[in-house]
TrEMBL record:
Signal peptide: none
Name under which the protein is recorded: Alanine--glyoxylate aminotransferase family protein
UniProt cross-references to Gene3D superfamilies, sorted A to Z: Aspartate Aminotransferase, domain 1 (3.90.1150.10), Type I PLP-dependent aspartate aminotransferase-like (Major domain) (3.40.640.10)
Keyword Translocase appears in the UniProt entry: no
SUPFAM superfamilies: PLP-dependent transferases
Species in which this protein is naturally found: Thermithiobacillus plumbiphilus
Length: 392
């Protein structure tokens, strides 16, 4: 076999991530690689921190991208803030809360689970009850935007309850950052991690994180060493920390960081409020189209994420065949269900650059065509007009 350069097809990515990457970001990533201690690169790192502080709406000095995907950011939060023997309250309403539990247990701590139905927000009353039953709990972890179901939780209220019981908070903002409001200082989130490939529309592989004063204090006063050398923030801070001498820790992914820098510049140019409003409007248009077709949303309206639309699969439809046909005929990727939702739902992402009228129309038209050809029980001919009434 003769192996030559790899040329992927051009797809439209409307699944749970990665999302369509803005071409400006791909262009930025192709610029010359320089050393990770080059003074020019170091000045870009300072800009990166300022841009991430803006995106997270925080003054936290320790705000930086972890070299690794969202899961690496998740693990960075847990391994630094959890010590063996701790009790951690984990709210679970989908797949990612389950991963938090895994992290807690691998740190040698006990996870007390607060369970809510998949497709619903986390219930603050259940968190309150769990904290009352477990006064020894030092930490509360929850997912702000549960990508496996499309549900959004009330982060500010959950953090307030945790703090009333002297627990710190870890929040997963992988899918929320850039798509819906994430206000780290206002909500007093002690530690947060996100990802680059969802509403920031960057390539996968980096995880922006931010840690507040109280979290840093806890990390500095640990009784035990962080079990991960790579993720130990006490060491990473020598490279990324404020006033640090930028000593070698690991080789930063230079070109990937050019991409994230560009993604954040694009977000700043548009403005946070404007980006949130755009996601909300594209969601309204897609929703109008889906409902005109007779497709049903999984999550109650008040708890829905605009950037992740989970819909039930119509009766008698082979859901995998539909996705395969969309990919083949329209180069369009939508997501399947994950975990308990596997085979029951589709997940349609409207994330970052991909949250635009063209993608909304493409998705509605393509889905209507493929479902019609498969003789699915849907209303035909109404979806695009319904979306256009929202898009104007
Ligand atoms: C995608 C996602 C992750 C994991 O991010 P990776 O970059 O795939 O490691 C974690 N949490 C949530 C809510 C996500 O949507």
């Amino acid at each position: 076999m003769q192996i030559s350069s790899f040329h992927p097809p051009v797809r439209t990515l409307m699944g749970p991530g990665p999302s369509d990457v803005n071409p400006r970001i791909l262009e930025a990533m192709s610029r010359p690689t320089i050393g990770h201690l080059d003074p020019v690169f170091v000045s870009m790192m300072d800009e990166m921190k300022a841009l991430l502080q803006f995106a997270f709406q925080t003054q936290n000095a320790l705000t930086m991208p972890v070299s690794g995907p969202g899961s690496a950011g998740m693990e960075t939060c847990f391994v630094n803030l959890v010590e063996p023997g701790d009790t951690v309250i984990v709210c679970q309403n989908g797949v990612f809360g389950g991963r938090m539990k895994e992290n807690v247990e691998r740190c040698g701590a006990t996870a007390v689970m607060v369970e809510d139905p998949w497709g619903r927000a986390v219930d603050p009353h259940k968190l309150e009850d769990a904290l009352k039953a477990h006064p020894e709990a030092r930490l509360v972890a929850f997912v702000h935007a549960e990508t496996s179901t499309g549900a959004q939780s009330d982060a500010k209220t959950l953090a307030e309850i945790a703090h009333n019981h002297d627990a710190l908070v870890i929040m997963d903002a992988v899918t929320s950052l850039g798509g819906t409001p994430v206000m780290i200082d206002d909500w007093q989130i002690d530690a947060v991690y996100s990802g680059t490939q969802k509403c920031l529309s960057c390539t996968p592989g980096l995880s922006p994180v931010s840690f507040g004063e109280q979290a840093l204090n806890r990390i500095k006063h640990r009784k035990t060493k962080v079990q991960s050398w790579f993720m130990d923030l006490n060491l990473v801070m020598g490279y990324w920390g404020s006033g640090a001498k930028r000593a070698y820790h690991h080789t930063a992914p230079i070109n990937a960081l050019y991409g994230l820098h560009e993604a954040l510049v694009i977000l700043q140019e548009e403005g946070l409020e404007q980006a949130w409003a755009r996601h909300a409007r594209m969601h309204q248009a897609l929703k109008a189209g889906f409902e005109a077709m007779g497709l049903r949303f999984v999550v109650p309206e008040a708890e829905r994420l605009p950037q992740l639309n989970a819909i039930s699969i119509p009766q008698g439809v082979d859901e995998a065949a539909v996705r395969a046909q969309l990919l083949q005929d329209y180069d369009l990727e939508i997501g399947a269900g994950l975990g308990a939702m596997s085979g029951k739902i589709w997940r349609v992402g409207l994330m970052g650059f991909g949250a635009n009228p063209k993608n909304v129309r493409l998705c509605l038209g393509a889905l209507e065509d493929v479902l019609s050809r498969m003789k699915a029980p849907i209303e035909r001919g109404a979806a695009l007009a319904a979306a256009d009434r929202v898009l104007g």
